[in-house]
Structures are given as C-alpha cells and as structure tokens.
Amino acid sequence: MNLVIRATQAADWQDIKATRLAALLDAPTAFGASHAGAAAFTDEDWQRRAVSTPQRTFLLAWAGSQAIGIAAHVVNGDGESSLQAMWVKREYRGMEIAAGLVDAVKQLCIAAGQSRLVLDVSPDNTRAAAFYKKQGFVFLPQWETLDSHPHIQVQKMAWLVS
Pairing mode, if any, of strands 116-121 and 149-160? Predict the structure, then answer.
C-alpha cells in the first residue's frame, strides 16, 4: 500500500469533509463534535478548515487517492498543543496508519516549540486508550465532559517532548 500522510491543502476540502463526516458517523461518542454540527458546515467552512493555520492543521492519511484517516494538531487558547479528530477507516485499522498520524502530529507539536502534546479520551474506549499509551501518552488526573455527549467523561493524556 502506498501510504502518504500530509497536511491538508485548500484543494483537499472535499476529502477532509468526507473523512471527518465518516469519522463522526462511525464513532459518534468519540469526538467533541457531532455529525449534525459538522454536516451543517458550508463548503466555505470546509475550505477554510483544509488550509493550515498556526492554530490548526488537519492531516489526512492517503492510500493512493483515497483518504483513509484524519488527525488534527490544534493549539488551544492557552498555547497548548493537542491531538484532535483522530480516526482511521475501519478496514485500515491495525496497520500503523494511526501511529503515522500521531507521529505527524507529534512533529507539528515539536515544530511549534511545545513541550507536550495532549488529548482527551474516554478510558472506557479501551482500544484507543491502549493505543495512545503505546504511543507514549500517559493519563493525567484531569477530567472533563465531552461537549457532544455530556454524559461521557473524558480524561486528559499527555505526551512529553523529550
């Protein structure tokens, strides 16, 4: 398989839209956003999202011409780097694609001069939590409510730049 992971560009807006919406349908309780909310974005909104800014970069994993995974590097209002929107198509899971996406986000974190990368995950999502641990993330004693599903509590994990 010819796998390429790269930051999205303006011309990728339809692929980022399709991939993000597929992720939100596949795992609706894994994200802070809802499918309905994202589906309401205009084409112009998606075109803006496809272009990297200092605050947000979306990455797509490509198998040939097909987008098969997504992740985002987001710098929040406190200047902290976070890994968001992480997802890989079901038929491509377990093939190191997710690790490649995480590595790409780690490189963006380092390039931004950050000392750590954080993410939120439900400990009940044991597959994701185990995957992030394998990638060097550790649980922090910080919890919050998932915006899209207030009955779900997520825990913060962090990876420290060495």
Answer: antiparallel
Question: How many other C-beta atoms can be found within 10 angstroms of the C-beta atom of residue 64?
Answer: 9
CB 67 within 8 Å of CB 50? no
**DSSP β-bridge partners for residue 40:** none
b/e burial code for range 135-156 (CB count within 10 A of at least 16 → b): bebeeeeeeeebebbeebebbb
Write down the residue that tokens 């750590």 correspond to.
Answer: 116
pLDDT along the chain (162 residues), means of 10: 92 97 93 93 96 96 96 92 96 94 97 94 89 96 87 93 88
Give the SS3 label for residue 158.
Answer: strand
Sign of CA dihedral 21, 28, 92, 134: positive
pLDDT digits (tens, 9 = 90+) for 53-73: 999 999 999 999 999 999 999
User: Residue 148: what pLDDT?
Assistant: 81
* pLDDT (0 to 100) of residue 89: 97
Cα–Cα dist 146/33, whole Å = 9
Count how many domains the chain has.
1
The residues near 49 (Cβ < 8 Å, ≥ 6 apart) are 8, 13, 16, 41, 56, 58
Domain that holds residue 153: 3-160
